[in-house]
Amino acid sequence: MSKLIALAPLCLALAAVHAHAHVVLDQQAAPAASSYKAVFKVGHGCGDSPTRQLIVDIPAAMQSPKPMPKPGWRIDIEKAGDKVTRISWTARTPEDKLANGFYDEFVLVARTPAQPGPVYWPVVQVCDEGRGNWTEVPGPGQKLSDLKSPAALLEVMPSKAGPGHKH
């Protein structure tokens, strides 16, 4: 019985994480002025409804984003002039949709800004019934955990490379 009581807080914590699950980045920190592989982790649908589309707004500070092809999903790239502003993945057939009981990842690469600081990635998860608008950005005095539907966060850290170092 005491083991069950000891596990209760852990079970509650895991339930809370699952209940508030949202689209997040696999690696939430990266050096400034470097190539970054953004892996958006999608852990659920909208209720019982499957995910049929993922739309990622590209933060203005990120440069040269390129999506990774995903079997069964069409990629659309929106631009303003030469700058990519949005990348979306859309399931080609009903069988390609991400069922609620499954997990998947959507990937792109981009160059991080030279200036350290937070970079927020608004993401919209479109399901057959409903949608998840993971687009909220904290205001002054707020934390990401205060938000109901937070955007994915990348913390850009000072570069460790010396002047003139580039890959």
Describe what is shown at a glance.
This protein is mainly β and 167 residues long. It has one helix at 2-19; strands at 24-25, 29-31, 35-42, 51-57, 63-67, 73-80, 83-91, 104-111, 117-121, 123-127, 131-134, 152-157.
Features:
disordered N terminus, 12 strands, 167 residues, mainly beta
Structural overview:
The chain is mostly beta strands and 167 residues long. The chain has a single domain (20-157), classed as Immunoglobulin-like. It is built from one helix and twelve strands, in the order αββββββββββββ. The chain has one helix spanning 2-19, and strands at 24-25, 29-31, 35-42, 51-57, 63-67, 73-80, 83-91, 104-111, 117-121, 123-127, 131-134, 152-157. A five-stranded antiparallel sheet has the order 6-7-4-10-11, with no helix packed on it. The longest helix has 18 residues, at 2-19. It is globular. The chain starts with a helix and ends in a 10-residue tail after the last strand. The relative contact order is 0.26. Residues 1-20 have low confidence and may be disordered. This is Nuclear export factor GLE1. Residues 22-156 form the YncI copper-binding domain. Residues 1-21 form the signal peptide. It comes from Ramlibacter tataouinensis. Keywords: Signal.
